[in-house]
């Protein structure tokens, strides 16, 4: 189960330091680094929505072309989750939030769509099924498997020892340790 990425872009000094250490930033020329740092410094301690980032911030950088790696680095570093924000769309493709990826155990006799409608969508209405995750044997969505609860079938309860018995054993071992230390 996947959920769309919803973020705001937040500029601060800690995140700026992370950007300076990133490999995509180091690949930029000195002029490009200066332009990027100047643009970010002008926005320190501000929070903007992703549409602003995509529509105004990136196009106004004086770069020939912003690499996909640099763009993803900026999103990763400055992006802050906001469940009320608009969905992030890059190149007409909805981006999924890897932190919200979840796996469900669906009974074999139940359809995936029916399970989603009953169990998942009431709690996460924007959730979608990851159709790329398929079983190599049957080629259908999801992986078929079984769960065997070994405790249910093989566990045998053993009554714990009485605390007085344990305390007596500890005292006996303490006396033995004291005797061995006395011999040294």
Strand tally is 5
Strand coverage percent = 5-15%
Strand order of the largest sheet: 2-1-3
Distance between the termini: 64 Å
Query: What is the H/E string?
Result: EHHHEHHEEEHHH
Question: How large is the count of helical segments?
Answer: 8
* Biggest beta sheet summary: 3 strands, antiparallel
Gross morphology is flat
Evaluate the radius of gyration: 28 Å
Low-confidence stretches: none
Q: Average pLDDT, to the nearest integer?
A: 90
Helix content class: 40-55%
- Structural class by helix and strand composition: mainly alpha
List its salient traits:
two-stranded antiparallel sheet, 3-stranded antiparallel beta sheet, 8 helices, mainly alpha, 184 residues
Characterise this structure.
This protein is mainly α and 184 residues long. Among the domains are: 7-100, no CATH class; 150-183, no CATH class. Helix content is 45%, strand content 9%. The strands form 2 sheets. Strands 2-1-3 form a 3-stranded antiparallel beta sheet. Strands 4-5 form a two-stranded antiparallel sheet. A hairpin with a 2-residue loop joins strand 4 (89-90) and strand 5 (93-94). Helix 1 runs antiparallel to helix 5 (68-78). It is flat, with a radius of gyration of 28 Å.
């Amino acid at each position: 189960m996947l959920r769309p990425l919803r973020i705001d872009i937040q500029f601060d000094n800690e995140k700026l330091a992370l950007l300076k250490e990133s490999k995509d930033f180091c690949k930029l020329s000195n002029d490009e680094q200066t332009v990027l740092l100047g643009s970010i410094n002008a926005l320190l301690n501000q929070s903007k929505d992703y549409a602003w980032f995509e529509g105004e911030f990136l196009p106004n950088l004086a770069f020939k072309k912003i690499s996909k790696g640099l763009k993803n680095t900026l999103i990763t570093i400055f992006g802050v989750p906001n469940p009320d924000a608009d969905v992030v769309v890059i190149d007409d493709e909805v981006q999924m939030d890897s932190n919200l990826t979840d796996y469900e155990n669906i009974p074999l006799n139940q359809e995936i769509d029916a399970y989603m409608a009953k169990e998942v969508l009431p709690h996460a209405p924007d959730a979608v099924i990851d159709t790329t995750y398929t079983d190599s044997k049957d080629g259908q969505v999801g992986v078929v498997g079984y769960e065997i609860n070994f405790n249910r079938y093989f566990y045998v309860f053993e009554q714990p020892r009485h605390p007085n018995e344990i305390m007596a054993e500890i005292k006996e071992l303490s006396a033995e340790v004291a005797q061995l230390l006395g011999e040294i």
